[in-house]
Design a protein that fits this description.
Structural class: alpha/beta
Distance between the termini: 39 Å
Oligomer: single chain
Length: 371
Amino acid sequence: MITPPSPPAAERADGSSSVRIGALVPLTRPGWIEAGQHLLAGLELGVREVNDAGGIVGRPLELVVRDTAADPQRAAAAVDELAHLGVAALAGEYHSVVARAAAARADALGLPFLCSSAVLDALTEQPTEWVARLAPPQSRGWQVYADFLLNAGHRRIAVAAQSSVYWAAGTRILRDYLAPRGGTVIELDTSALTPAALCDELVDRRATAVLLLVGHPEPAVSIVQSVRGDQRLAEILIGAPAGQPEFAEWATLLGDDGAAIPFLRYLPERLGPLGARVETALRERLAEAPSFVAFEGYDTVAVLADVLRSHGVDRARTAESWPRVAVEGTRGQIRFSRTPGISVWQWARTPIHVVDRDPAGPDRFRILHAG
């Protein structure tokens, strides 16, 4: 296989050359802006600390940011632009469908891409050496969530879903895992049902749990408010496996109604010394508690900086180095391996918990189940 040559490093205004990393983040609607801001905060903190420690063998690390706005075509165009600008690697992206478009383009161009947050199993159609991922694959995380539902006694589980590849994949994972274990998945199309009509369906179908496979803030917030306000559904569990309640905006918009809604969170039960230090720095940077997405951003830069220091800025050598990575991240030691059914290099030991916001204090999180 002939690998494309790496372009020369970018020249800075002061005459010194920087090592550039392209960063893909959703910073405008319809992207999930708060997730993008947290991801970017982690990436930027990581770059600042790398440069404070001497950069990449004496050369400054530079982040070249592009807003994807949750648009796959925009992301693919950004990959083309960043490749032309001479970035050594790509980092970031939160939305799975967008990350899939970016990964396909990076693979075609021979540009290393370390995906921070997207979980869709099929991040690329075919196995690739160019892409690695920190977030766990959706199948692993959502099976952990399904185990939580079963352990809590739920067998009739409704999914209030919008149309997308990501939500459809989640529904399929839940059905395939729950059916052999006595569970039933009831699909409800939120594009065809108002929140009030959705509540009627939940009552008629005798669901004991409803999962929000929908966008944030809408229609997720309206659905929660309708379900919480319906006395017929006082005992139903509302769940959000994709993590909508992780961010502060959720608590701001819903208040007490946003508590006791379990979701997947990719943080350990307790952070170690590195994680605790980074948490403090991220909190100061964001002026609020950092989400797990901010830690994913920081860890992305930690891995790429280690690779670039060890193997230089040649793109092919970076891609070849994925199986040799051994980096202490904020959430544990990061190593990549080939996982059955996953087409990219995968961190296989990402911590996974099912948590919710504590009704006694919605700013606190309770761990309900460990993966």
